[in-house]
């Protein structure tokens, strides 16, 4: 999209006011998913498979249905593919199959039936009255085993055209890209390292479990309140799954207690709607933590082979990676993303990457911040680190030598526009952290990371009030302080104070379509739309001023919140403040609003560099992260504090993923650690203060230069921490998480 | 579910003796209520012991021994300066449990009777030689803490019996105790290995010792070989090596989501030496 009047001097943008939702959140006034109720409301509960893979022979719900407190029981028969033939296709079918099992239960925790009853306890207890007859089938949860010839087949015919002949039916998508001649490149290298790496699935670990309140009448009209990153996708998906018209379902997004990609799809929402339709009463459904772990989307687990050749001077001559990602019992593991991101920071003559999307008997993976990228970076940046060590080269210098810049042909194809990787590396080298001495037992790791960022469909609407204040309606749930950023951008254009702008996350009936808050797109895309909507309002304000002054509209310009004559020949008028124009807008032409709808496509890719110090207890294998610095290109930081928050959050989640978080399956294919006690996300005292450096290399695709910052921050940590730990322990760690038992075992193996 | 709040231990015992189905005593509830809410254990009878007179008291007896009420919380123990001075190991073990919120509720007795092999206060109590008073339909008896757990989630208490007091011996001269646990995080986690050490010195030489291991066997262990390894020594390198070896040898752990057999076995030796050093320093009157 062509951009006019790009801006570089700012009044509001770049300041750090309190977020508009802050007071509500610290006082408990904010309403999250479970904080709502309706008259006559019932409570739902979901019956889940105790088996990793089983044919559902029979479901007998008669005892439950006969219970006095039970008002509805639903199974797969209550959804659209049965009720409305010919049924659903593609991802809608996958989502339906995931929210309510069909012929087979595909993973431990897969929903097989649900109940609505007069209390939450009654619903929970009544689940025990449903009798399900299962025929247990062989299962597989490991990605490499799921690809092996003898692996149980999860679903025949799920593979698409991309998969080469002869692969196991569990391999459902294949990606292959690159350029140059890697064999020739390896031949030119002074040192070639080939190594394999494994990462376990991790959960986004949002503190708020999935929760919703659903109402659906037999007239096909419905209301849904839910915690989500995108209520339009919830609307579209639920409508399809229930066989109703999209516009007849109004969806309102609650405040959200974390999502990180995991709330970009639906789980309990269609179930609650189906229960409500059957009971003809509102139904509230709230997941337990254990349900969140077992049945919502963790990230993929991965198994990867990397080969990189380097010259003595640090030049990478060739790079090759094979990335196998397991994404649960459905297509969707982002093997293609892993492959495309893995070598993206580097300017490579010869590069080749292959990605596999593999199904296994686990919950359907969901996005988790830069989905697929962190594991690839872990493998690639570990090998680069090992090359630097063996060739005795400085790891930042080597990365600088090979860094991609404007014009570089990316490993995944296109040529980069203006990007900020080099600037982050230069800042890393200059940062006091990089030259600070290490204590004995400590190691330092660095890593770069890349993420695409996304634009997506966006609608924004802005309305001015008579008193000169403004209300801004955006459709992207605020998952990271975006209301503050939107208000700052609107303030910048309108020239009225930040405090005079109220930003609302509009429901699906109040605004046009909006994509999910994902892909680091909100500040970029809703921000761009906010700027355009505000400009649209400014045009109208200028027209009213021109009419009052009796001069042509192109003789009026907008400055610091006022209409002013554009020059000496336009006439001699005092500046006319916004509030003077809105005061009588009803009689000068009617309400003044601005809006903007588009799919902005200049999101601008993003890079970061992380520096980590870690200390390993050689007797117990326990790691502590002693110092952490995140350096990332934000393009332009609209609200620097919330940008820093994103950087710190990425590092914190990365520390968890690197050190202790993992999905642990027993031999029976059941998840062993579905509570926060045993699924070990870091607690506050596990983390050092995470230092941040905001680099600003403006994105040419945004009027203020914004690049998304939400995801890139989780790409470098796995590798940076692994490199730090490997140096501290004196042994290369190739498997995540680097839990104390794994580190201690590696130390023992190493003698 | 029937809820009772008796005014005496005799009444509590009678209620429990006559109850059918699953009975739980409600002290802090940080195990009972969590298990109830997560649908693991829904008791038929819940007997709240917090209304019994004196259960919150922490008393230093004339002979220097201590009586801890069965509803005295971790927070109250940590804030009791004299108790901390006498038995820092027991108090720090209790203090490791949960968060500030949990500390305001959790009790030694609940930790013991929940029957977890990984319960933090239990190895510290065993090392300290703590006993409990058990009240039942036939009166009261005194039982060593190490004899209460019989397996994961199981205790030696008979139907109708409950604990009415926790008795910590007099500290006496030149003694020190310590408790350490291994967790992969820094707090809010469950012990992968726990070690309690309590010892007494004459000059620089250890004359008495008790070493207890948690989370490495179906019940908390009192390990005589560990005590033997350090009694008579000045906790020199050789004694520490022998202690570590004895601790590792005593382990009978499982491989599970929290740790491997190899890891638990190795780390119990490491922690035993580290805890012994702290107890030794405390016995010498040093800050540790
Ligand atoms: C967030 C959290 C973190 C935790 N962290 C830890 C930890 O780090 N380490 C650890 O060891 N534990 C931990 N726990 C478990 C728990 O807090 C402890 O076991 C605590 O000491 C239990 O004490 P309570 O008074 O709450 O017991 P309750 O829950 O009231 O009772 C526990 C059991 O003891 C029995 N009981 C209670 N009183 C008596 C009595 N007088 N006579 C006979 N039986 C009795 C009950 O019947 C029940 O079976 C944690 C729990 C939570 C919720």
TrEMBL record, chain A:
It is an enzyme of class 1 (oxidoreductase). The lineage of its organism: Bacteria, Pseudomonadati, Pseudomonadota, Alphaproteobacteria, Rhodobacterales. This is 4-hydroxybenzoyl-CoA reductase subunit alpha. Residues 27-138 form the Aldehyde oxidase/xanthine dehydrogenase a/b hammerhead domain. Keywords: Molybdenum, Oxidoreductase. Its EC number is 1.3.7.9. InterPro entries: Ald_Oxase/Xan_DH_a/b, Ald_Oxase/Xan_DH_a/b_sf, Ald_Oxase/xanthine_DH-like, AldOxase/xan_DH_MoCoBD1, AldOxase/xan_DH_MoCoBD2, AldOxase/xan_DH_Mopterin-bd_sf. GO terms for molecular function: iron ion binding; oxidoreductase activity. It comes from the Bacteria.
From TrEMBL, chain B:
GO terms for molecular function: anaerobic carbon-monoxide dehydrogenase activity; FAD binding. The keyword Flavoprotein applies. It is an enzyme of class 1 (oxidoreductase). Its EC number is 1.2.7.4. Keywords: FAD, Flavoprotein, Oxidoreductase. Transmembrane segments: none annotated. PROSITE patterns: FAD_PCMH. Residues 1-173 form the FAD-binding PCMH-type domain. SMART domains: CO_deh_flav_C. The keyword Oxidoreductase applies. This is Carbon monoxide dehydrogenase medium chain. It comes from Ruegeria meonggei. The gene is coxM_2.
